[in-house]
Amino acid sequence: MTETKHEPTFRDLLNFPCKFSFRVIGDDSDHVQNQIVRVIEDEFNLEILSDITRTLSRKGTYASFHVELMASSEEQLKALYAALGKIESVKYVL
User: How far apart, in whole angstroms, are the C-alpha atoms of residue 61 and residue 76?
Assistant: First the structure.
């Protein structure tokens, strides 16, 4: 009998509530960082736990923004990923 493999979910990997770190990759601008903060703090009423760090790509075209917050559920994280992905200058949310 073959085992059915499934992709692990956030719920399988994390015990909520928990600290959660992610990266948002987008255009290098203060506007993008401000939009990230607005979504997290205003739309989701979450507290960012440490300063957002910005790392530039080699050519300086894009920036990677590292964010850490306290997540309360898998559903919250999925909604947050979707909302951050809708920011016009964001390319990826990892």
Answer: 30
Q: How far apart are CA 71 and CA 75, in angstroms?
A: 10
**Residue 78: inside a domain:** yes
Identify the CATH number of the domain in which residue 74 sits: 3.30.70.260
State pLDDT tens for residues 25-78.
999 989 999 999 999 999 999 999 999 999 999 999 999 999 999 999 999 999
- Give the list of residues 6+ apart from residue 44 with CB closer than 8 angstroms, or none: 76, 79, 80, 83
Residue numbers of the domain that contains 80: 20-93
Q: Strand locations in 1-94, DSSP E?
A: 18-27, 53-56, 62-71, 90-93
